Amino acid sequence: MEIKVAFFDVDGTIVDNHSTHSHGSDMELVPASTIEAIKLLKENGITPFIATGRSPFMIEDLLEGLEIDSYICTNGQYAVMHGKVIHEAPYSETLLDEIVDVSKKHDIPLLWMPAEHYILSGANQELLLSGLEAMKLPYPRIQTDLEKPDFKVYQMVAGVTKENEHFFESIKEIRIVRWQENGVDLLPLHGSKATAIQTILDKIGLKPENALAFGDGFNDIEMLQAVGMGVAMGNAHKDVQKHANYVTKPVHEDGIYHACKHFGLI
């Protein structure tokens, strides 16, 4: 099995969100060993991709600092390879209407994610703001009454506790994936990081066994299963780790470098 591409989740994988270091930029939260590992992978002919639930504007610092020009964003709804968009799947107007209807009925805040920014709408916004703050993510624009966007939406996030997430189960065309105590991704039924990865592999003529992926969250499970070698971080939930081929050390213990060394890639 020859690895030619490597896909990296961001939060909890590349970025140590629980680091006590100052946070002027995401690059300050990337372990030095991870920076070195990605540099060595490139020198050894392995192309790195970022694969994240974030919007593109939220990873600009990482792309520049790690010298990466290929990425999957918004959990697979938007993908760029060598600076060119190769895949995009915005939410349909019908699906957005259904999500907004549930949100209004139950006073649930929503985070709308186009490529260039994100917008928080609805009631009880503190549910999502607390989660964004905990993950050291940028403060969103606020537009309380947003219902009909005039832009493409690549991801929707709802501020809802576990006991109330069933409100969205009436929408048959979404999957509910929890990423934080008060936050869930409302993902299109057939959209995922894995879907975007397959598009990329098809485009460059590679097979899943030529790909490696690192992740720690529930939204990474399909990605870990879609490649020849899926690596879960040591800080990942046990239910995520059981879907991986290999469990490495936590992000703050040089997990990415350790796994790359383990597999002889660097």
From TrEMBL:
Keywords: Hydrolase. It comes from Turicibacter sanguinis. This is Cof-type HAD-IIB family hydrolase. GO terms for cellular component: cytosol. It holds the Pfam family Hydrolase_3. PANTHER family: PHOSPHATASE YKRA-RELATED (PTHR10000:SF25), PHOSPHOSERINE PHOSPHATASE (PTHR10000). The keyword Acyltransferase does not apply. InterPro entries: Cof (IPR000150), HAD-like_sf (IPR036412), HAD_sf (IPR023214). The keyword ATP-binding does not apply. GO terms for molecular function: magnesium ion binding; phosphatase activity.
